[in-house]
């Protein structure tokens, strides 16, 4: 039997729908606005005529951005750090989480090790000592400075180890009886079964590397080595053009022009815009299951 | 001895697996911790950590006498606490409202949209915010103009800056914050709602007496875990949005340390400020984990 909802209930449902649609639009609007500006003519953008649709449509800003070797090179460095950084990080997270997911009877020193890792969440040396360590290791101006310090993310290790723990124990027992050692149990049982958690941590690591800008600014002395976000930070936010080799003023003006700024922002956001909706169901599942403990 | 060797025989692969991860955190987390010695030194870069003279608490004394330091600490806590409170209230409300949507695809579409800003960096969002909030050509000030309000320089005005930080941070993170609360909502036993309905409770009463109590454990948990963030006002955001005219209301510990240490190369002094922050944060985070364990039976691992 279906009871027809009361008037008050229907009024609530409709206004709730409108309210949430408005809220969602608020999250999307700034991106659309930037996209509209990037496809508008310079004069229309400067005059503030653009809202959510391009005025005097042109792709000049994009021609401009992709024509700049500095931008293209920074984009390449970001891709490099995402690929290398995520691969290294995932490998380390998978093997680190496994021993830590064992109970005390299987792995006597587990708690000691776990605290060594967790302590780094609670306390850190701070900005200056970390900077000087990287410097004395000779990592300045190398990809290592961007990839190694982020290689172990303890939060991801915890998420994965909690996920491992919720897998049925019988699976592991069975594989042990079949004579599999720890390495093959991890590789053949744990890894295939924890794909949602791996997709989650993998996504977060990729996004983290793509979005990271401060390390580039600290550890790269030569702007040719800047990843994209650091490059944008200097050009768009700080409007600092000293490092651009080319001396012509035109280049400077083009890069700081409103439409070009918008195009650079949109191109940098684009990889994320296409990746995250597809992984949404994984990360929700991964977060929820990784955080449930018995 | 015998049992030790037996243990080693059984457990060596597990130790081996931890080795690479341990190496990384020792090099990149523990070795920098030894660098906090600098806080008690007059650090000279070419003499290094072991050659620089120790000066006791001088750096901390300097810090206490530094004219703007109270301001910096106040700004940090003020912005951080507002972010924690708003960052709790907004996601909970939106999660409850999203949960009322009956059509799965509408709910999913809205969720996808509100998660979006979380995944963009503060560099990009700052670029967008600077454009939107620009007093001369920004769309937001244009919209205010329709109501006869004169353009406001949101990012250059000390009266506005901290609130712009809180609002834009909530805007970026509330969608992602709804995930845990939505998960908690699906965990509430539906028979409780049926029972409440039979007792004559309407939708609003059900929210008040079934939904909210059902979410309480996770709300308490999130609140306690956030205590550890009292000194994290958001470096990425503020660094990309502030400028000298708003230092008065915008300068926080992290930006201060950056300017002192990296830009002015006062390594010892900056490390002292950073150490003070690390120690206080350590206490707050530890307390929050203990509380979370006591109140919500939460364990990190």
Automatic annotation (TrEMBL), chain B:
Keywords: Cell membrane, Membrane, Transmembrane, Transmembrane helix, Transport. It is found in: Cell membrane. InterPro entries: MetI-like, MetI-like_sf, UgpAE/MalFG_permease. It is a multi-pass membrane protein. The keyword Membrane applies. Residues 73-288 form the ABC transmembrane type-1 domain. SUPFAM superfamilies: MetI-like. The chain crosses the membrane at residues 12-31, 72-98, 119-140, 160-186, 207-227, 267-292. One of its GO terms (cellular component) is plasma membrane. It comes from the Bacteria. GO terms for biological process: transmembrane transport. Gene3D superfamilies: MetI-like. The keyword Transmembrane helix applies. Belongs to the binding-protein-dependent transport system permease family. This is Protein lplB. The lineage of its organism: Bacteria, Bacillati, Bacillota, Bacilli, Bacillales.
């Amino acid at each position: 039997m279906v009871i027809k909802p009361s008037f008050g209930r229907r009024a609530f449902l409709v206004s709730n729908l409108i309210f949430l649609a408005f809220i969602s639009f608020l999250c999307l609007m700034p991106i659309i606005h930037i996209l509209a500006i990037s496809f508008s003519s310079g004069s229309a953008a400067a005059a503030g005529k653009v809202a959510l649709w391009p005025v005097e449509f042109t792709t000049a800003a994009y021609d401009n951005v992709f024509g700049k070797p500095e931008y293209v090179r920074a984009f390449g460095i970001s891709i490099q750090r995402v690929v290398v950084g995520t691969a290294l990080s995932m490998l380390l997270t998978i093997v680190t989480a496994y021993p830590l997911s064992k109970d005390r009877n299987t792995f006597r020193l587990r708690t000691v090790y776990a605290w060594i890792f967790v302590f780094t969440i609670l306390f850190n040396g701070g900005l200056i000592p970390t900077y000087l360590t990287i410097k004395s290791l000779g990592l300045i101006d190398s990809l290592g400075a961007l990839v190694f310090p982020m290689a172990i993310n303890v939060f991801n290790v915890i998420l994965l180890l909690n996920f491992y723990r919720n897998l049925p124990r019988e699976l592991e027992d069975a594989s042990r009886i079949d004579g599999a050692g720890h390495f093959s149990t991890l590789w053949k049982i744990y890894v295939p079964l924890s794909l949602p958690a791996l997709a989650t941590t993998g996504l977060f690591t990729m996004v983290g590397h793509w979005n990271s800008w401060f390390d580039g600014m600290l550890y790269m002395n030569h702007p040719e080595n800047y990843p994209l976000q650091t490059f944008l930070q200097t050009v768009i936010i700080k409007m600092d053009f000293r490092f651009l080799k080319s001396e012509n003023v035109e280049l400077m003006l083009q890069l700081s022009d409103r439409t070009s700024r918008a195009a650079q922002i949109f191109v940098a956001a684009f990889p994320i815009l296409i990746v995250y909706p597809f992984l949404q169901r994984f990360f929700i599942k991964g977060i929820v299951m990784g955080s449930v403990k018995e | 001895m015998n049992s030790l060797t037996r243990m080693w025989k059984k457990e060596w692969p597990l130790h081996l697996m931890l080795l690479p991860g341990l190496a990384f955190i020792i090099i990149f987390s523990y070795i920098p911790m030894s660098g906090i010695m600098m806080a008690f030194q007059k650090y000279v870069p070419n003499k290094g950590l072991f050659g620089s003279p120790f000066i006791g608490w001088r750096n901390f004394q300097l810090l206490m006498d530094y004219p703007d330091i109270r301001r910096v600490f106040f700004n940090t806590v003020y912005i951080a606490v507002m972010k924690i409170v708003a960052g709790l209230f907004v996601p909970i409300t939106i999660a409850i409202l999203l949960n009322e949507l009956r059509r799965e695809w509408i709910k999913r579409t809205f969720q996808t949209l509100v998660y979006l800003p979380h995944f963009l960096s503060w560099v990009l969002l700052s670029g967008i915010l600077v454009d939107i909030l620009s007093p001369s050509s920004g769309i937001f000030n244009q919209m205010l103009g329709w109501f006869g309000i004169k353009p406001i320089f949101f990012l250059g005005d000390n009266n506005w800056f901290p609130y712009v930080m809180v609002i834009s941070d909530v805007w970026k993170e509330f969608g992602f914050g709804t995930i845990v609360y939505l998960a908690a909502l699906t965990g509430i036993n539906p028979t409780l709602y049926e029972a409440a309905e039979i007792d004559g409770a309407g939708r609003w009463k059900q929210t008040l007496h079934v939904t909210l109590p059902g979410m309480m454990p996770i709300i308490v948990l999130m609140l306690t875990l956030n205590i550890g963030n009292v000194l994290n006002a958001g470096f990425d955001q503020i660094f990309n949005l502030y400028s000298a005219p708003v230092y008065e209301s915008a300068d926080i510990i992290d930006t201060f340390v950056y300017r002192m240490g990296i830009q002015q190369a006062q390594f010892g002094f900056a490390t002292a400020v950073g150490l003070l922050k690390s120690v206080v944060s350590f206490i707050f985070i530890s307390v929050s984990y203990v509380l979370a364990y006591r109140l919500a039976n939460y364990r990190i691992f």
